[in-house]
Amino acid sequence: MSVTAAFATDITGAGATFPYPIYSKWAEAYKAKTGIGLNYQSIGSGGGIKQINAKTVDFGASDMPLTSDELNKDGLMQFPAVMGGEVLAVNLPGIKKGEIRLNGKIIADIYLGKITKWNDQAIRAVNKGVNLPDMKISVVHRSDGSGTTFIFTNYLSKVSGDWKSKIGMGTAVKWPVGVGGKGNEGVASYVQRIKGSIGYVEYAYALQNNMIYTQLQSHDGTFLMPSSETFQAAAAGADWAHAPGFYEILTNEEGKSSWPITGATFILMHTSQEKPANAKEVLKFYSWAYDNGAKMAEELVYVPMPKSVVDLIRSSWKEKIKDTSGKSVWN
Fold first, then answer.
1. % residues pLDDT > 90 (the chain)
2. Which domains, ranges and CATH numbers included, belong to the chain?
3. Which residues of the chain register pLDDT less than 50?
């Protein structure tokens, strides 16, 4: 991605680290084709929301969708760019990818500080035959305002009454235990360094860093490995056409094959554009990505938006994003 001074036609964006690997890939291909660069700051969803509200970037990016009320209050609209899954990465000697199984209650209790050892009875009960070490669990979470944290804590709030009542969900929460890393990058780095650690990261980061991750139990009770198929199964239940402002959350979806910690990542833009030419370039970039970026997304195990949803998104651009005279930016 361009880190040089942006040219007049270069696009600027900031926010979610969850989609950074695919935005980088799209940006490289788009620049090669059009000469237009994307300067994207992977600073976390909380930072992206702040920057778009301050109008310091052409678009913000967040894995936490904003409600219609929040969008209207700040003169924003949002649309989903791509979907993906989060995994629990661990650093345990002698344990291979997918060898350990975890369910929502166990994960919540680990992050609440109630389960503190890897050979705790609750973990042993779902991991018969696995040689679990007598080792302290080191919890790693995000330190910044994060949509990845929103998706993770939204999931924990659905599977653990204890978590819901004591901690709840949000881009930042009051963590009872653990050490905080900045961005998906920071969490991945801590987990790789700290023996006995566990952390939640977007799957592409686990793949890129060759990390060990666990199986997770689906809403319907099956244990699953993360994959395009299990992310797609979770995404299939989304009803985008009836989601106000594309507000859709994909955690703990029903279905034997649905990965439980799945989410979309969203682009935030102002509905009244003081720089309509810049806004149009942003839309051209995402339009190109919808048409040409699916294979790249799948290579990094993200789930592209279905064509029917892309049609809805383009209609929303036409309807909602206007210049200061009220003329549609997208046509």
1. 97
2. 11-84+243-250+259-323 (3.40.190.10), 86-237 (3.40.190.10)
3. 2-8
